[in-house]
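Section handout 9: paired folding examples.
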Amino acid sequence: MNLDRITFNPEVMGGKPCIRGMRVTVGTIVGLMASGHTPEEILKAYPYLEKDDIYQALAYAAWRTEEIEVPLAMP
């Protein structure tokens, strides 16, 4: 899976996954889609985004939900 539009930088939005280094998080995009906004509405609200940004944000979020977290053993 190619997620080259998803970036992580501790100096941008506290290191949350963002779109191409901008101050737009994956969570923002997913939240907008979940609340019923269309990609066209999102692009109108954020004209510096591209449609591929939205679809990669959704793909990243879907991938993250499939990850398995293994608790660390405590000594």
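Moving on to protein 2 of 2.
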Amino acid sequence: MTPFIAEFLGTMLLILLGDGVVANVILKDTKGNNGGWIVITTGWALAVFVGVIVAGPYSGAHINPAVTIALAIAGKFAWANVALFITAQLLGAMTGAFLVWVVYKDHFNRTEDKGIVLAVFSTGPAVRRYSSNLISEIIGTFVLLFTIFYITGAEITASGEPIGLGSVGALPVAFLVWVIGLSLGGTTGYAINPARDLGPRIMHAVLPIKTKGDSDWAYAWVPVMGPVIGCAVAAGLFMLLQ
């Protein structure tokens, strides 16, 4: 297990389970149809938990280019490895989206609404206004990264000796993503991760989906640039406060 493979597998699982819960809720004739926003945000939070469990011991479980870039800006990750990690994350996201299509293929075939089909793969604005949409992604990603900078491990208070928490250590990030979805996700679907949106959007464009419309490339820059700007602001403020 190399860091590249860890980032690939962690992001693949993130998207498989994250886009998977969206498919379960919105595609036609699924068991979870019309499950609602609480189900989707909870599924995404637990998807993050699973991805972090797998990738954490080997790569630090970035599974998000915004995390990689923010850590590099703050001097906590080598810039020389940024491109490698982002490549792994993008390929993992594409693979995860492909697997969602495989699992839900019959339900994709029954779903006639092209917008719903696209929504399984990528985010989209509730109200399309690019400036507001960009701000939403910037703020959501800022909250994600600024909080991640302050997540600490458990320790014995008297001696300061760290305590390994194993997989339980992934819970804070899962709760963080959950609350961002619940509180800030209603505007754009809270991509807060360029690979999460771009990788599956590419797969939507290339897969032979029965009912498929445009991949909405006019909007695709928002869930990429918003998280990049948001993570840079978070890293900058973190360094300023140190």
